[in-house]
């Protein structure tokens, strides 16, 4: 697992397709559930994404816009539309709302040349791992047509036109694929706000070191051991890693271990602090607790209790 792919662990569409129906002007769909991440793409036609308190963003044929919540946003046929806003949120995709093909406030059928087919997927954020990805994204991310996501859109267009068993599962996975393509293309832009750890993955030495830390976070790593595995000296690895990532390799490892531990503490209610400590590479629960408190500001036990209070699912 690489540093980028690791962050998508808890980001999965689960029946979260809001719609794949044809919209006829005028329209205004107001997304109000405050999903942490919402992906919008159109196949045919165009419209505008209007985030709350931010300038409108055009969404043209085969383009993708990702909106980071929790603020609501609206999808309109044109800025200043006369359409009455229709509230739509995470639960629009429930079977009692009409199944996969029909959505509240949306019009199916042959609507002529002005029709727009909109596909929207909402993403919950599962724990601290995926939150690191959210923190690296702008409020509105736009991916132009013509990139790697175009192949996904071809599959999406074919799937939404069908009415077959397993359709929602296929659509969910296609949305996941499109999300990864859009975020990766944004990070790859010369003018994008690329996180240091993402850019560092291209370096033949630091990239290998990052992959090792993510593949084996519980291993007893030292800078010397990392240097040996990546084929350079300890001093070379230490300097190169710090220059490209912005912190020493073992500092990065500690922060990543604490991120993993945070999710384990809230996801595995039956696991003891010692068991969580061993899972992330600490044989001594006291040393783990000290590192966790130093990094997170609270003890593992306090973090676990706070997570259980803040969320019915036990996740902060």
Condensed summary:
The chain is of the alpha+beta class and 316 residues long.
Keywords:
316 residues; disordered C terminus; alpha+beta; single chain; elongated; 41% helix; 5-stranded mixed beta sheet
Number of helices: 12
Quick one: biggest sheet?
Answer: 6 strands, antiparallel
The helix content is: 40-55%
Query: How would you describe the shape?
Result: elongated
Provide the low-confidence segments as ranges.
93-111, 309-316
Terminal residue distance: 25 Å
Mean pLDDT: 83
Range of strand content: 15-25%
Give Rg in angstroms.
22 Å
Q: How many beta-strand elements?
A: 11
Structural class: alpha+beta
- Pattern of helices and strands: HEEEEEEEEEEHEHHHHHHHHHH
Molecular structure report:
The protein has helices spanning 3-6, 127-135, 149-160, 167-188, 196-200, 206-215, 223-230, 234-245, 249-267, 273-279, 285-296, 300-310, and strands spanning 17-19, 22-23, 28-31, 37-43, 47-51, 57-59, 64-68, 73-76, 86-88, 116-123, 140-143. By secondary structure, the protein is α+β, with helices and mostly antiparallel strands. Residues 93-111 and 309-316 have low confidence and may be disordered. The strands form two sheets. Strands 1, 2, 4, 7, 10 and 11 form a six-stranded antiparallel β-sheet that branches. Strands 6-5-8-3-9 form a five-stranded mixed β-sheet, with no helix packed on it.
